[in-house]
Write a structure and sequence with these properties.
The protein is of the alpha/beta class and 281 residues long. The chain has two domains: 7-65, no CATH class; 77-278, Rossmann fold. It contains eleven helices and seven strands. A seven-stranded mixed β-sheet has the order 3-2-1-4-5-7-6, with helices on both faces. Strand 1, helix 5 and strand 2 (111-116) form a beta-alpha-beta unit. The protein starts with 6 loop residues before the first helix and ends with a strand. 44% of the residues are buried. The chain binds S-adenosylmethionine (SAM).
Length: 281
């Protein structure tokens, strides 16, 4: 098993956050697989590698302070929205090492497709092959680059475009550029039957200027696209959206407001979360 490179690192650091969250007595979710993903990655990474350092006890927030508290809140938001949507078909784009297919109690008839790059998918498949966990849904993993043609392998795996679908894009869009994001959203819209929904998070333009995002930007992997007005932008792709109110969300889950969602922070907030449903016609 080979640990994924560059983009895949982000999947591993997110799993690390889920591992840490899952160990809290007041955890927002319990992701038993996160620990196994992190352990498999640690075994494969040099001591002096930044990722190795993060995985050996730190979280991403120690490197990017504004993200503190965000990933746990975000994951719980996606989990809650996914169950509430009740769609028979779910597609997680940029699924990374997320274990929502296992963690949540789905109707047995639900099909969950997970799409990510070939290296992340192979790493995840390798770890899952060694565990006894079984999802209550039918889970299908697809290796594809979301900047290329991913709808053909999705259809080949059994995706039904006539069935209402819930799309989950958690922590993905900041890694695509404008053209890639538009193409992805256009394809998703074309595959969304009436009754479909989407849950997503993305960056406001402020993310491009905040100091603590500088490392990701410098490596050229972050914020190729940002969205200033999420409701208008989602409307262009045929979605009627509602933004999560970060202050409410944090209060409801008894957590501090993550700095990157804080409307009172100078130049912020830098991230938004939204849930949208397909507009008729
Ligand atoms: C920050 S991680 C989030 C993963 C997962 N959604 C989660 O919450 O744990 C971003 C994921 O997007 C995936 N990704 C980024 N660009 C991609 C692309 N062009 N095609 C497929 N996956 C991509 C990465 O491989 C990575 O797994």
């Amino acid at each position: 098993m080979t640990t994924p490179e560059v983009l895949g690192y982000t999947a591993i650091t997110t799993a690390q956050d889920r591992r840490v969250e899952s160990a809290r007595p007041d955890r927002l979710f319990h992701d038993e697989l996160a620990e196994l993903f992190v352990a498999a990655a640690v075994a494969d990474i040099d001591d002096d590698h930044l990722l190795g350092w993060i995985l050996r006890g730190q979280t991403l927030a120690d490197v990017v302070p504004s993200i503190r508290g965000y990933l746990a809140l975000r994951t719980r938001y996606f989990d809650d929205q996914a169950i509430a949507a009740g769609c028979p078909q779910v597609v997680i784009v940029g699924a990374g090492l997320d274990a929502r297919a296992y963690r949540l109690t789905w109707p047995t008839t639900t099909v969950v497709f997970e799409i990510d790059t070939a290296d992340v998918t192979a790493f995840k498949t390798g770890v899952l092959a060694g565990v006894d966990h079984r999802p209550s849904c039918r889970r299908i993993a697809i290796a594809a680059d979301l900047r290329e043609d991913w709808s053909t392998p999705l259809a080949a795996a059994g995706f039904d475009r006539e069935t209402a679908t819930l799309w989950l894009a958690e922590g993905l869009l900041p890694y695509l550029d404008d053209a890639g994001t538009s193409r992805l959203m256009t394809t998703i819209a074309a595959l969304s039957a009436p009754g479909s929904g989407i849950v997503l998070d993305h960056a406001y333009p402020a993310a491009r200027t905040t100091e603590d995002n500088a490392a990701g930007r410098a490596r050229g992997v972050l914020f190729g696209s940002v969205v200033a007005d999420p409701l208008v932008w989602l409307g262009r792709f045929g979605w009627r959206a509602e933004l999560a109110d970060p202050v409410d969300l944090a209060a409801r889950l008894h957590r501090d407001l993550p700095p990157l969602l804080d409307p009172a922070r100078p130049g912020a907030p830098s991230f938004w979360l939204a849930t949208a449903t397909r507009q008729a016609g």
